[in-house]
Amino acid sequence: MTYIDDLVEEYKGLIVDYIKTGNADELAGTAHEFSERAIDLDISPDEMVALHIELVSAIPLTNYEEVKASLDVLQEIMIRFGFTYKDYKAMLNKMERHDQEMDVAASLQETMLKTSIPVIENVELGAISVPARKVSGDYFNIIEHSDSKLTFAVADVIGKGIPAAIAMSMLKFGMDLTSSSSPPSKSLKRLNELVEKNVNKNMFVTMFYGLYDFKNQSLCFSSAGHEPAFLYHYEDDEFEELDGKGLVLGVMKDTEYEEVSSRLEKNDMLFIFTDGVSELRKHDGTFINMDDIKEMIREARDQHPQDIVQYIYEALTRMRNQNYKDDLTMFIIKNKSAN
After folding, report:
1. Which of 171, 217, 267, 277 has the most CB atoms around its CB within 10 Å?
2. Ranges for the PPM-type phosphatase domain (predicted)?
């Protein structure tokens, strides 16, 4: 654990303790000591406010009184930083604007990025996407084409707020304009140029982009630095890792993406996910083992994919350390047709 991690845990402890005790005299002393250490580490007032915003969501605080108590802690810290009440009010206004921005971004996602799951003969689909906070950095899209093909993508935007919501909107509209005849490698190349040209330079996107032909059960896909997917072979009861080489979207304009082909036999399943699954922290602080996820899929393999992703999500929720929440997305395609 770094000294920054120690500072974060100490500040979290200040908030939790004050909510429990309400002891203002004790808070004054501990806040003074904390402020001195933060100043010694060159922590800026803006960084303290940003930390406070993160912790308010992560603890989490469940009612008005707890939020008010947390602001009392922040006020005491800011006073020790040498700030006046006027400065403190300005910071509160900044936090309020931040919350308003999150509300706008969440509304954008709800209205512009909502994806329906089509019903297709001999194909079963399941998807779940749960944000850690108001605005999700995860995104999935499913497009059914008239020629018995299905385009799909799972993405993770490395960024936050309205810029991230706009980036995801661009990706959605870019995908919606893609024909089923366009191979995933070419589609990713075009989306990469779109992101590189129009999105903030410090914002990048990982994406798993696939094309499934449900008439002959063939699959081809490309990956832009995304988590490898798993193909579960039902008859052999084995998992195959599917990965494609390629940079994340938005780094370099002229990027080529590897294209990989595979095939789904009857009852085989393709499982795609974001790092909210693979990097989930358990109660003891350790990362989840992906073998645990595979075992969950085995246990529920005869169920509908929507029931499977729900089953996995509920299991992960029970296992997850609530201090390390992240956006979480899972998508499953199951072939029900005999070749």
Report:
1. 171
2. 124-335
Length of the chain: 339
| Highest mean pLDDT: which range of 3-12, 110-119, 283-292, 307-316 | 307-316
User: Are 318 and 227 in a shared domain?
Assistant: yes
For residue 167, pLDDT over 70 is answered with yes
Kindly state whether residue 189 falls inside one of the protein's structural domains. Answer: yes
Q: 120 and 32 share a domain?
A: no
Average pLDDT on 67-89 reads 73
**Domain final position from 83, 102, 137:** 83
Give the pair of three-digit tokens for residue 128.
Answer: 């779940």
Taking Cα atoms as reference points, which of 106, 122, 119 lies closest to residue 165? 106
Distance from chain centroid for Cα 99: 19
**291 plus 219 within the same structural domain:** yes
What is the domain extent for residue 312? 115-335
* Structural domains counted in the chain: 2
The CA distance from 297 to 309, in Å, is: 9
The amino acid that residue 223 corresponds to is S
Amino acid identity at 14:
L
Distance between CA 34 and CA 73 in Å, rounded? 11
Q: Which of 116, 165, 112, 163 is nearest to 141 (CA)?
A: 116
Residue 297 lies in a domain: yes
Q: Note whether residue 91 is domain-resident.
A: no
Q: Among 10-14, 50-54, 313-317, whose mean pLDDT is lowest? A: 50-54
**Cα–Cα distance, 33 to 21 (Å, whole number):** 18
DSSP-derived 3-state class of residue 181: coil
| Four-CA torsion 229, 233, 236, 237, nearest 10 degrees | 60
**79 shares its domain with 136:** no
Residue 337 — very low, low, confident or very high, per pLDDT cuts 50/70/90?
A: confident
Same domain, 228 and 152: yes
CA–CA separation, 136 and 326 (whole Å): 9
pTM score, whole prediction: 0.69
Whether residue 21 is contained in a domain is answered as: yes
What distances in angstroms separate CA 180 from CA 175, 211, 249, 258, one per listed residue?
10, 8, 21, 18
Least confident among 57-61, 118-122, 242-246, 318-322: 57-61
